Every structure is written in structure tokens, then in C-alpha cells.
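Predict the holo structure. Ligand: geranylgeranyl diphosphate.
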Amino acid sequence: MNELIELIDKKLDEYLPIMYPENIFKAMKYTLMLPGKRLRPVMCIETTRMLGGDINKVIPSACAIEMLHVQSLIHDDLPCMDNDDFRRGKPSNHKVFGEANAVLAGDALLTYAPQIIIEKSQNLLTQTQIIKILHEFMNFAGAYGLIAGQVVDIESEAGRLVKSKEETLKFIHLNKTAVLFRLAVRIGTIAAEASDDVFNELDSFAEKFGLAFQIYDDIMDEISSFEELGKSIGKDKAAGKLTYVSLYGMDNAKNKFNELINECYGIIEPYKSEVYSAILGKLSKRIISDGE
Ligand code: GRG
């Protein structure tokens, strides 16, 4: 797992040389190179590996997913969105580079990510695979995915609910969080040329993982610390935000998290992946340790 993270860090650094005008590249690289968990690119690469594919073929796409994720973090922290001063243990992008540059750095990462997929996959993947991957990327990043999740999140914070609280929360979790895990696993599966059945099974795994991960994030916002998370905590509760914990209570949140993680284990077990076992184990251990 650590070797994979080192490989991803090296490639991200290599793919993004600093050029003129330096400020934009520095802003893009600042949040990108801070120590995130790299869960999405790790899951993308591990999916290809455990399906018998060549991991080198999927590294550019895995890095592109991290760029998209980082773009969403930079924009999410802006004063017009979640207004967070810290990210990955350091001042957030707009605090260091100013709001205009943070908006532009996010935009630049969002457009550079598919460019990397196209340029760096040319001799590794077929044209059909590249087009499929780009289609997945656009679909999940746009108004039918990540952006939809963020819009409904903002609307719900302002008390504007079109659907029930339960339906709204599920929509936000599926679109704001689960989509990027689904994107990672779907692209890993495309690169490994796996069957449709495997594709659908792992897609369902990624969706459950994404829902569990957002519940984990909601729980951590209440029980964790700035030192552990690298971002401000307790903000959701203070803002009266719609979260799994605020809607269903802490005990139910933990139960639902455990249920989803068990379902994830059930799907992934036959693939005998040490990396996936480590990821699932680490998340559940943290939640279990809270009750001790
Ligand atoms: C795609 C154009 C476009 C816009 C994005 C701002 C926005 C719209 C969406 C926000 C998405 C968001 C920030 C979701 C939160 C998901 C989440 C739990 C993030 C934390 O992920 P970790 O813990 O973070 O994996 P690290 O820093 O470890 O990578």
C-alpha cells in the first residue's frame, strides 16, 4: 500500500512540471502534493492488479482521478462553498494563493486530468478503452455526478429540500462521495478488460464503500481531532448540516457503517486483495476503537 502511494506521488509530481506562469502551477501542485490518503488512485490501480491487468496501463488514469478529487477539495474549501481554512493539515488553497487562483487551480486540474489520460495512455490502452475511460470521467465529474452532489448539499444546508431528508442525504452521499470511488474502480476494471459481470459487481462494491466512507467521514467530524484529520472538525454539527449522524444518530451511523463494510468484505473477499483488506480493516478499526 505504501509503495503504491509512493508511486502515485512520484507520478503526480512528474506529470505536473512548474512552468510560466508559476503561480497557477504552484497552486495546482500545493494541494495535490500534500499528504492525502490517495485512496481513489490506490483503489483504481489495485483493481486493475487484482484482476490480472498491467498496473502501468492505469497509472495515468489513477493520477487523473486524484487530480479531479483535489480539484473538488480546493473548490469545496472556498468561502462560497464550505469555507474551510485547512485541508490536509495545511492552510487551504485559497488561504495561500487567494480565491481567484484557487478557483483557477481547480479549473486547471479539472481540465488537465483528462489531458493526462489522453497523452499518457496512448501506447498503453486501446483507443476504445481511452474513450470509455474519458466518458466515465466526464459523466462522474459533471452535473450527473459530483456537481449534482455538491449542489444538493449546498441546497440542503440552506434548508431547501425538494425530497425527504433521507432521500436527500442518500443522493448527496452517492453523488458527492461514492462517485469518485466508483469512477476509480470502474476505470481499473476497464483497464484490466474484465467482464461485464465483474464490472457490475465491483461497481456495487465501490458504491457501498463510498457510502460507508461518507458515514465514516460524518462520524469522524464528531469524534476526531484536527491533528488526525488535517481539517477543521465539528463544523458539520455547528452548521446544523444534514449528515448521517445528525439524521440517524451516532449508534445507527456506526451500525450502518459496519453493515456496509461487511457487505464490502463479502464482495471483495474472493479477489484476495491485501490492499483492499488493509483499507477496509483500517477504517473499521478506527470506528471500533471509538467505542473502547
Ligand atoms: C467536479 C467541477 C466539479 C466540481 C466539484 C466542490 C465539489 C464540486 C464537490 C465537493 C466534493 C467533496 C469535497 C466531497 C467530500 C468527499 C470526501 C469525504 C472527501 C475527503 O476525502 P479523503 O478523506 O481526503 O479521501 P484526502 O485528503 O485523504 O484525499
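The chain has 15 helices and two strands. The chain has a mean pLDDT of 95.
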